[in-house]
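Inputs:
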Amino acid sequence: MCELLGMECNVPTDIVFSFTGLRRRGGGTAHHADGWGLALYEGKRARTFLDPEPAAKSPLAAFVAANPIKTLLAIGHIRKKTRGPTSLANTHPFTRELWGRDWVFAHNGTVRGARSLALGRYVPIGTTDSEHAFCHLLEGLRASFPKGAPDAATLSEAVAELGGTIGKKGTFNFLLGDGQRLYARCATKLCHIIRRAPFGQARLADEDVTIDFAPVTTTRDRVAVVSTVPLTTNETWQIGEPNTMWVFDRGRLAQTHAS
Amino acid sequence: MCELLGMECNVPTDIVFSFTGLRRRGGGTAHHADGWGLALYEGKRARTFLDPEPAAKSPLAAFVAANPIKTLLAIGHIRKKTRGPTSLANTHPFTRELWGRDWVFAHNGTVRGARSLALGRYVPIGTTDSEHAFCHLLEGLRASFPKGAPDAATLSEAVAELGGTIGKKGTFNFLLGDGQRLYARCATKLCHIIRRAPFGQARLADEDVTIDFAPVTTTRDRVAVVSTVPLTTNETWQIGEPNTMWVFDRGRLAQTHAS
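Outputs:
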């Protein structure tokens, strides 16, 4: 199993605290030692740090942790491979452009017979079921709205529907971002927390690290964090219902779809 | 003006020496202080380091220089903006997937009226003439070969032809990679060198750095380096003829096209 990490906020926020927890689980406290990736949006484009090496030992992961980059939307992943060898081409998250913005995708689980999913404009570069499913999903969106992106509600409904259809073929927990919103589908295992005022302390489950958010936030800040498992031990995480999809927008849970 | 750096080899090679020279020119010895980027292929996928900050002062550039990643094909760029503000979305190189592989593009010069170039499946994320021209060029390739990539000679001829047509609208020096070959078009200013046995010393023009390649190479190694200006002072660089395009393949100059 892989682990997912997403963050979506209303003010630029660095993901170092959560990434520190996730990173330790990449070959450290857990067995997710087949590479990691982290995409950080700046407007419509995402910059993505990718490393086929275990996150716990990766110099690039150490750099990312030591040099916080603030963002409104981030998607991270650490991999325990189930399909496809360890290589850069098979390292999540995956990125494709649609409607003049980067779409970023990371998956936890296995989609059986993913190769039978029809492709169109987007062709997988690697050999994972995940990237194939992502290409199929994006092509589904493109084909459904050939004139461009529809309104937010229509779009998230379409993502949920496509996600649910693909999800029938296996375990399809995913995080998908478009630079504006974070779509987070729970097939089996996903949780989230929304941090907002009054901000307090949070203690990482996998590392002896505690952070006090109060001095670095304002009363208007809202930060949604989504993860495969709760990353902290002293906060209450919302556990996802199987076959639902959350949509986060400016640090709020904007919608919950059956999916 | 921006500056381009490309490397294409027959054995995995790190680009740190050349990148060190280029980096100093990014806000150091020259005035190219509007961001930088470096794409390093591993097979069909490229990982790209992007920073809208000056390369000479960028912690990420320092990380890349200190942690060499070997590659067969790299494309780098430092930017002095002419069109479009400084932002991640406007930072070269740009990447899009075609035929199941990443294509990476960096441009030096200005394409006048780039927005009049027809688009198809690839839509610019930022506001540069460069990314618009890249999207137009890739769509031209896709439309010319709807069934997939043609043979190498046909493909490079098509790239040269599309490059030449766009080049009529302004100054279109570019580097384009597909993970197999490096296409390097000279409109006004581009040079290259092919390092091979017997390897000797090279001395950077912009930094007091000399490297001896002999201990770190074998007699079969071939490394082609392409740059806007010669990066070393004690080697003979081949100066490009305006309106030609070089194609490098496994460290050899495979073809030279009128373009």
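Remarks. The mean pLDDT of chain A is 92. The interface with chain B takes residues 42-45, 47-48, 50, 52, 59-60, 63, 67, 87-89, 96-102, 121-126 of chain A (CB under 8 Å).
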